[in-house]
Amino acid sequence: MGLLSDPNRRRALIGMLTRLNAPICMICYMAGVAWFMGLAFEPFTLRTYMSENAMGSTMVEERFPAGERALATGREFAAHKKKTGGMPVDWLVRTMQARGLEVYTQRFSRKLPFPDEDKERYMVKGTNVYGILRAPRAPRTEALVLSAPCSPGNENNQAVGILLGLAQYFRSQIYWAKDIIFLVNEHDLIGMQAWLEGYHHTNTTGMDWSPLQGRGGSIQAALSLELSSDVVTSLDLVLEGLNGQLPNLDLANLFYAFCQKIGVLCTTQGKLPRNDWDTTSGYSHAVQTMMLMVLKQASSRPWGDHGLFLRYHIEAASIKGVNSFRPYKTDATTVGRLLEGMYRKLNNLLERLHQSYFFYLMPSLTRFVSIGYYMPAFGLLALILLLRALDLWVQLSSPPTRTTEDACPPLCPLSAPQPASPGVLSILTPLVISHLTGVALYTLPVLSQELAVEHFPVSETEAVVLTAIAIYTAGLALPHNTHRLLAGEGTEQGWKVLKLVAVLYLAVLLGCTALINFSLVFPERGLLVGVNDPGLTLLFAVFFFQELQETPVTLQEGWMLYLSVISQGILDHALYGSLLYPLAALLVYPCWLLFWNILFWK
Amino acid sequence: MAAPLALLLIVAVTIRAALFRTSLANLISERVEVVSPLNAWKRVVEGLALLDLDISPYSGDVFHETPMVIYLFHFLMDYAEITFMLADCLTAVALYLAVKDYNKQVFRKQKFALEADRIPMDCLELIRSPTEMYYIPLKVAMFYLLNPFTIVSCVAKCTCGCLIYGSALLSAIFLALATYQSIYPLTLCVPALLYLLQRLYIPVNVRRSSFWFYTLQYLFMFLGSLLVLICLSFFLLGSWDFLPAVYGFILSVPDLTPNIGLFWYFFAEMFDHFRLFFLCVFQINVFFYTLPLSIKLKEHPVFLIFMQIALIAIFKSYPTVGDLSLYMAFLPVWNHLYRFLRNIFLVSCVLLACSALFPVLWHLWIYAGSANSNFYYAITLLFSVAQILLVSDYFYAFLRREHHLTNGLYLKKKDGSEATLVLK
Fold this sequence. Notes:
Shape of chain A: globular
Number of strands of chain A: 12
Number of strands of chain B: 0
Distance between the termini of chain B: 44 Å
Radius of gyration of chain B: 23 Å
Shape of chain B: globular
Oligomer: heterodimer
Organism (chain A): Gadus morhua
Number of helices of chain A: 21
Helix content of chain A: 40-55%
Largest sheet of chain A: 9 strands, mixed
Distance between the termini of chain A: 38 Å
Pfam families (chain A): Gaa1
Strand content of chain B: under 5%
GO biological process, one term (chain A): attachment of GPI anchor to protein
Keywords (chain A): Membrane, Transmembrane, Transmembrane helix
Number of helices of chain B: 19
Protein name (chain A): Glycosylphosphatidylinositol anchor attachment 1
């Protein structure tokens, strides 16, 4: 408390902070970015390890023999899928029943707010089929889920085949202590959303679905399988879920441990772990992997069918089979054995996965950075904002007579003899106006699509995206027109108070966002210094992401991609409740408009 | 002055009415920061349902309001929204009148002091002008009515007690009502007494019989009305069930639902055999400061009331943001202390950040499952520390202003250089 109560020391400290403000901010920024980039450097990261006792110490033996038969089932499924032109519900029900499962179906339908041009769907109708293998050794209080999507075209047939093969094999084993639910979902995430809402009796997005007839216990963990070829070269683990949520790290550890044991190549973000961390290429490989994870997380959308499980406290991940040109191949039996092993370990769980980390970044599948290591990088960047705010505060309060005016803002002309004193009212106006613009950006695009389609030669999707961009740009013109009306405009104090408010607003906003989804904040603040325009950031992120995935795009393609990303963002919000779009429209954009205002007030 | 007040009331009522109509009302009434087990509307509804079935509303472990409240709402059930808005408005008007009255007194005292030349010449900057004070009551009312914290607790239909001062009997009755609602306002008895003594020009002197006579008279009125209230509840309900269910519940803190206070986490972690001891320590904390503060501030009962309300809001067992808003409403009254405040920037930043972090960490803990209670409690702790800093800062500023008023604003050391005041 000495620092807070001793006036001399306070004065010295504040004097130092204001005098050296710019250099300290520079140092903080450099240190923050350097810290973040250092996270990908192997000696600074930790090796992944299994924290959960129940999964670590016990041995299991994988014996799944029937890979070929599973692939045959997959081919049969493909034939029936082609014949019915969609989900072969009857065949699936019959096949699952023949394998001794309790089989149920769930119908769902959903009308999208506007047509989704990427996946070409608008009115969605479908059926989920799931079979429950009841646990022979325990009361039915807990469950595990294995899901495979029924995708259009020729994809994921093998995944369904392996799912059915595993169901048959699991049925004959006696050691299951948890119900195992085998789910084939149609229309990927929409079907998954319907099934999860039905299972948990919630309805958050206004979807129509028929209630589930049968349930297992509370779901402990889920894996989603995507496999489109008979043999694979490697398996890719996808962790990023809705709103940047990640499953417990132990799930990733489990996957890695079994890949090592069985001898399957495993990747995350499509990148193999490498051992040459001391070379430049090795380091840049790790940075690429980590940045891909950060960007995927920042997009706030589920990157696999598992993504929606995370909302219900269910640890889930997607496993994708990749078939590339490497000579060494893994067959379906091995993939089956891998899954069998993972389920047997999950079956041993005594409580929910909670021992390991929930907030982490992975520069490779074998290494991770926990929240304690990456938060300081953000802290250093947030410190800049606080230092700026302190500096402004000191500047504002240095003439003591004015400070008292500041504290009791004039509410009417009687007590406001000085026209220069900026009141709360003059700050309130831009705050309210920019938030109203934000509300318009949030609500108008979807509401006004019909109007736009009538008057302009565009499709609904384009109408929504272009309206959003139009409102966004129109917001930039607002300060031009509003600032003339205001009393605080033009004065030194006026813009300083506004800047103080804006800086504090941004600091609180970033702090809160960083806690929920670190990745959303860091690239924006760290890589784009000064420019925190959300629109430009998104555009930049799109190009950067393509660059990282080693599929660079031209400007034209990039722009189209940008438009589709915006429409996907709005759709994700409407369909699954992703928070990125409301966050950007209602909070980040108004905050940025405040900074834009300052330019005009100066 | 009546017109702006009326306008303010209309704006406040409009905001509340608009919020009641939106889906936000449901969301807000579920927030733990806003409702406590003591005052949640849901629980009142449950209590009413039990009452309708001729079962004692206290028979479950859900309802903890006082019997008078439940009978009040028994008749006003259909007008609940209006009742809450009305209560807020009445509180605001009462605050407005009370502060106006107080300002008149301060001004009169200041005039006497000036005429008697008791104030050093260089302190004229510290003298308060009538124009500056003219708007303070309105600002107080505005701070109360437009404070987002007040609005959310009104929308959540919290049943926080309110407090006003008029004549001696009236003040005793209201104080008894407030105490009857939640025990803690008991500590406000002292400032109220001091305030009344000051109005009647009775010096606070233990050797004077008139002081003792008046004190006893006041205490008698207070305890008498409290007794009447409790007996009335007994006759309404026909049993003494409500005593353990309301006061036992407040004092022994059996419900550890997270809130913005300090109790829940601490007692969730506590070993059972220490529980009683720490319960006493925590509860005494609320009452403990009354005596030293009243000795120090015996000339300034209204500031003492402010301090007491703030301390209650910080240390009570089930605090909500509604309690916070009550003492925050008093902040404009102490506008003139602003130049002596030291940490106001830090404190307001922390309070702001904490208010934003509460829902975020709650989401992470309860919905996302990735954080845990430690995160939430850390913010609670920070919030309380910021509040304590705020209150102690105001206390320090008040004392310092008094010091300057007697010793002159620009203090000199013995060698003639400028001196600084250091608090150690």
